[in-house]
Amino acid sequence: MPRILRIAAAQMGPTSRAEPRATTLARLVRLLEESAAAGARLVVFPELAFTTFFPRWLLSEAELKPYFETAMPNPQVQPLFDKAKELGVGFYVGYAERAEDGRRFNSAITVGPDGTILAKYRKVHLPGSVEPRAGDRFQQLEKRYFEYGDLGFPAFRGPAAWHRPVMGMLVCNDRRWPEAWRCYGLQGVELMVMGYNSAAYDPNGGSTENEEIRTFHSTLAVQANAYMNATWAVSVAKAGNEDGSGLIGGSCIVDPNGVVVAQARTLADEVVATDCDLEACRQGKEKMFNFAAHRRPEHYRRIVEQVGAVVPE
Amino acid sequence: MPRILRIAAAQMGPTSRAEPRATTLARLVRLLEESAAAGARLVVFPELAFTTFFPRWLLSEAELKPYFETAMPNPQVQPLFDKAKELGVGFYVGYAERAEDGRRFNSAITVGPDGTILAKYRKVHLPGSVEPRAGDRFQQLEKRYFEYGDLGFPAFRGPAAWHRPVMGMLVCNDRRWPEAWRCYGLQGVELMVMGYNSAAYDPNGGSTENEEIRTFHSTLAVQANAYMNATWAVSVAKAGNEDGSGLIGGSCIVDPNGVVVAQARTLADEVVATDCDLEACRQGKEKMFNFAAHRRPEHYRRIVEQVGAVVPE
User: Fold this and answer.
1) Do B302 and A125 lie within an 8 Å CB cutoff?
2) Residues near A65 by Cβ (< 8 Å), separated by ≥ 6?
């Protein structure tokens, strides 16, 4: 019996620092409506979807404050929740979280078609640095602005309207870390959802990587980790030129064979939607990646017993 | 300063059960000569390179015996060692090992250009089953014929003639398991070498996968794990139709960006060779995959604390 859930990857084009939050939210609502019109029951938005990718700037506490949500939902984002409930569509969205105790996280939530928050995730693999790099026009200050996620990788069940998929969330750089995927794989995950803001090139002028190779890396990591965990994966960009700093696009929906079944073609607001049969995870989980039959954790201890590389003499 | 090592992937076509071992060894010697003529200093051969892929047959102890090497080298394989030393070329080769105590492993060794064995590896991720599947024409009995590898994933240094790369070995199915790659990645691996025999389709008539998707999976797993560990990878098939059971080809050399830089085009004996600059690993290891800066092992404990999947209600 197929368990078909139609999912939309709702890629966003660039959001400049100057763009009013209400304008950005109106774009999200429009993408949600477009996704619903395409038949999607779940819409995946990018990381930090409500604002520009502010960790590229060295900001004061006062400047930082408006980028953060102190509650979810809240009046600034309520119209998205209202529209989703009205349409009976759920969504994943990334946002900057300021907890009640003042701690800040790069977070994501999945909201059900009835408007309730099903689960929250806080990004574990923060890239960048705490201290700004002297002389650089653009920074990557996630390690300065956020704490490391403290919730681990908890899988959860989606609602009956989605055929109760086992779901897992990641945020951006997490998708390049096979440990994160495996922790969800070990919970039988059938649907991974994630958003990203990934630089298209070294914004300070380096030439070792370009947009093509970085888009390839983004897609490759999702394809292989989807295959190796026999799960669907939906990976969604904020793309294009944000105030002079380029972001890759390439938002994609990947099946449990690691095959890209839908991919965005632009660097702008763009919806791609496809039917995902959750039963397609079964073959991989029962054969090649039957973990109970084939894993040998006694040989994996380095993965938890050391952080950095220890190189032989 | 580049550290360039020229490597050959020496794919083998099918080896039937009836083929005399001396004939197969002569093919290995020819592939070695061809690789040396192409300038390679290291040649990578397949898994179980000296014989047919015998785990597809249910065999008696007496039938099994001749497939196993009780010493390495030994008179049956000595001509390969002699030719390699003469040419100053080293190699990776997979073979069926019977240890002195009678235990059997699906093993591989890397031999230096001076003919010494640099390291041995015993396959950890054995696929297949212990008991034969009733009524099936072809079996996959690796779990019956071999014990799980007991050496872990020990990286080692190649010789000065190869610019002392940090090397790691895998065998076949291991390449699909990110845990195995990461254990080597955590030792700073710069060059992963592996051989395989992978079914091109369900030899008993299933239709859920075909040669194209299985070749794609093989390449995808190597590309992504090479990228995620910032290492070169050389993955080499025994390919083609062995007594009615098809094996994929697709032997490839992959750079630390996950890009396939050379790939076999046939299902026959075929050499592809390319220059590999070991310094190309540096960028990934120092930036995106700087493990010391970015890994969070406190969240990875499921990877060692459970074997099979534990699915949420």
Assistant:
1) no
2) none
pTM beyond 0.90: the answer is yes
**Measured distance between the N- and C-terminal CA atoms of chain A, rounded to whole angstroms:** 55
Query: What are the structural domains, with CATH classification, of chain B?
Result: 4-305 (3.60.110.10)
Tokens, residue A299: 């040989």
Contacts of B192 (CB under 8 A, 6+ apart): B167, B168, B169, B170, B181, B184, B225, B226, B229, B231, B232, B233, B234
How close B127 gets to chain A, by Cα (Å)? Answer: 7
Cα B215 to Cα A285: distance, rounded to the nearest angstrom: 19
Strand partners, A110: A92, A119
Helices (H), ranges, A40-106:
61-64, 78-87
In chain B, the residue whose alpha carbon lies closest to the alpha carbon of A124 is: B296
Tell me if B155 and A220 make a contact (CB, 8 A cut-off).
Answer: no
Condensed to tens digits (0 to 9), the pLDDT of residues B206-251 reads 667 899 999 999 999 999 999 999 999 999 999 999 999 999 999 9
Closest alpha carbon within chain B to A228: B176
Q: Is A153 helix (H, G, I), strand (E, B) or coil?
A: coil
Q: Between chain A and chain B, how many beta carbons pairs sit less than 8 Å apart?
A: 207
A78-127 tens-digit pLDDT: 999 999 999 999 999 999 999 999 999 999 999 999 999 999 999 999 99
- Among the partner-chain residues A178, A290, A299, the one whose CB lies closest to the CB of B153 is A299
In DSSP terms, B10 is beta-bridged to B271
Please give the C-alpha separations between residue B201 and each of A63, A163, A199, B128, in angstroms, as whole numbers. 58, 31, 40, 15
The one catalytic residue among A47, A142, A242, A270: A47
Q: What's the gap in Å between the CA of A228 and the closest CA on chain B?
A: 7
Pairwise CA distance, residues B236 & B97, whole Å: 19
Question: Six-digit token pair at A246?
Answer: 């380029």
How far is it, in rounded angstroms, from Cα B152 to Cα B182? 12
Residues of B in contact with A225 (CB under 8 A): 178, 224
ipTM of this model? Answer: 0.97
Asked if residue A156 lies in contact with residue B313, where contact means CB atoms within 8 angstroms, the answer is: no
A152 touches chain B (CB under 8 A): yes
B106: CB partners within 8 A, 6+ apart:
B47, B48, B94, B96, B97, B122, B123, B126, B142, B146, B149, B171, B172
Rounded Cα–Cα distance for residues B175 and B192 (Å): 10
* Nearest residue in A to B167, CA atom: A312
Residue B48 confidence (pLDDT) above 70: yes
Alpha helices in chain A (DSSP H): 21-37, 61-64, 78-87, 142-145, 178-185, 211-229, 282-286, 291-294, 302-305
Q: Taking each helix axis from N to C terminus, what angle separates B78-87 and B21-37, rounded to the nearest 10 degrees?
A: 10
For residue A232, pLDDT over 80 is answered with yes
State the catalytic residue, choosing from A83, A97, A142, A172.
Answer: A172
- Say whether A282 sits in a helix, a strand or coil: helix
Chain B residues in contact with A302 (beta carbon < 8 A) = 153, 182-183, 186-187
Q: Which chain A residues are closer than 8 Å to B292 by Cβ?
A: 307-309
